[in-house]
Write a structure and sequence with these properties.
The chain is mainly α and 211 residues long. It contains nine helices and two strands; from the N terminus they run βαααααβαααα. It has a two-stranded antiparallel ribbon with strand order 1-2. The longest helix has 30 residues. It is elongated. 32% of the residues are buried.
Length: 211
Amino acid sequence: MDKGKQTFDLASIRLEKGLTQQELADQSGLTSRTIQRIEKGEVIPYGDSVRKLAQALGLSVAELYSSSVNIQPADTLQTTTTIETTDTIETTVAVETNILSYFHFMPLAGVIFPFCNLLLPLFLWINYRDRNRLYDYHGRISINFQLTMSLLLMLLIMLLVFYFPVGFALLTIVYLYTLTSCIINGIRALSNKLPRYPVAIPFLKLPSRYF
């Protein structure tokens, strides 16, 4: 691909329309891999592909090209993450992965300071949720997990009082699981991957368009 080649900013337009890469692929008749390669600048769409994309986005071809940008070679593109149907997605949306990781690492302070496992990610979420859908997503899922584990730990503390052997064993397992999950998901965030908390009650609803 020639350096400086003009094309449209598909990732930004797609996100403005609230579509995932898979949704755009389904509506345009192209493959999700093709959508990814276009957004990364590895390929430049022409002819029928452009018409299909424009139709799927509800735009004319002229409107699609009105957002033209200079595409760099694929190996020099700066990439970040966004919510899609796969774990790691590259887009042109500015998101700081270190901020994403804070949603998962900061609750570890609860080991020393009571309730910080809930308060710190909550304050961070309130400040960043409107800046990007990823911040909103990581904040919601982290808070859901911390609330779930806090409730479970309180129940196990009550069990500890009435039946110490079982209560202590379960309390230790849940406590270690909570710490491990925070660390793993903090690392996943730094690696541009979505967090995974299998055990989390959805107190804060995760919008369906994120999946």
